[in-house]
Fold this sequence. Notes:
By secondary structure, the protein is of the alpha/beta class. It is 61% helix and 12% strand. It folds into 4 domains: 4-142, Rossmann fold (3-Layer(aba) Sandwich), CATH 3.40.50; 147-309, Reverse transcriptase/Diguanylate cyclase domain (Alpha-Beta Plaits, 2-Layer Sandwich); 321-423; 443-534, Arc Repressor Mutant, subunit A (Orthogonal Bundle), CATH 1.10.10. A hairpin with a 2-residue loop joins strand 7 (223-229) and strand 8 (232-239). The chain is flat, with a radius of gyration of 35 Å.
Amino acid sequence: MEPYRVLLADDEEEIRVGISRKIDWAGLGFVLVGEAENGAEALELAEQLRPDVVLTDIKMPFMDGLELCRRLKQSLPAAKLVVFSGFDDFEYARQAIGMNVFEYILKPINAPELNQVLNKLKVQLDQQRMERRDMETLRRRYEESLPILREMFYTRLLDGRIRPDQIRDRAARYEIQLPEGHWVAALVQVDAPKGGEEAERDELLLLSVRAFIQENFDLPGCGLRVILYNDAVALLANLPEREAIYPLLEELERLCVLSHSYLGMTLTVGIGLPCDGPAGLHDSVEGAGSALDYRVLMGGDRVIYIGDLEPDRSARLSFEEEDQRDLATAVKLGSREQVEQVVRSLTGRVRETRLALPQCHLFFQEVVTSLVKLARAGGAELEEVFGPGFTGVVTLTDFSSLEELEGWLTEGCLKLREVLGRQRTDSAWKTVEKAKDFINENYRNSELSVESLCSHLHLSPTYFSTLFKRETGMSFTAYVTEVRMDQAARLLRDTGEKTYLIAEQTGYTDPNYFSYVFKRRFGVTPSKFRAGQSR
């Protein structure tokens, strides 16, 4: 089993050497991965080494043990903390307990006592490791159950029991690809000679037909899912275009004929109307069921398309809430291809329904109104997006063809996407510049912190830290240190101020810690740096 990683922090080298040599780390299930002589160094090492356990003294230069623990509870919340102290002081113990420190040990430290603490630590760490492994076991079982969960997803989708806005998330959860575009549902009913156990026979027949269709279906460009659905086999076909419904009918006719030779079975296939997107499969499968009802009049062993029997006379064209949400998502967060696909889908519905001009005009006016609201909410100028003189009103007679209107809509959506994206980028850049200005104005203040900066900017520390690191390539603390060190170097070069005064002027209350940080940054002490500059 992999040993647990330990970081030791104490400013007394004798104590560090004693602890590292007297403890049988491997025998206890640990490995000592690092040692630090002060709290600041320990914090840096912890961020690099990611220890499971931190053993730290209370009294250390630059940053004491309690401050180190406070910082580690934020950056390494899972790490176990053990505190040493040479002072039998209740206040230290109280603060340590308040930070969920695992153990508080009084100096001088003896090996048996530390061994006992490490043994207790290992029991707790082993328990946590076991719980993580249990989670891994659950995850494996979940992956093994995926085929069943996917079948359940398809069944609920056909039953209409999944809200349209949840379909994508559910499909992603079960690692199911559901591309946009045209879909159609079909139901395959099986007739075979009677005999044997009825329930078992029917289940075997359905499984056999499902395998037969999966193995023999051959229609380029058409994706097919085959599932067991109630007492039938359901087909979910993703069509490259709406007109591909007719090649699909021919392919299913071929499979019905082939099933006689291969399976000795009669298949009757009912097909619903094509729909736009997976959310419409519930209506399509209902149409497929209605098509199978005509089997009594038309006989079995054939493909029955509901569109041939019941033309869709209820066609209507309206810009629904889901359409508005899809358009807004594509413009604000989608790729160029996603924007083009959404616009193409909207104009495609107009082509398919072939409704009167007033209805089409109302539909596109609703689309444009949705884009206008989106632009205003994002602070975008309408003329920048839609061109000079735009008033928000679009008339179909302004365009010579549906293709021209589609191009105008696509161009407007892409321009709006560009403007909103630029504003988001500009906003992030302005925030970081304000932060840099604040740091430049306040680096002399030893109390300068990410919390005080975020209070000034009215941002959450977590969001700001992520944004600042993304835009500058360094953390807030590293940037502040860089500014302070640059200023310190300038003062050492250009003035004769004492080192301790320069430390105060650059935000360091402890001259020794200032010298420590300066040497780490420039490789020499402040005095040697000044001497080197004066030559």
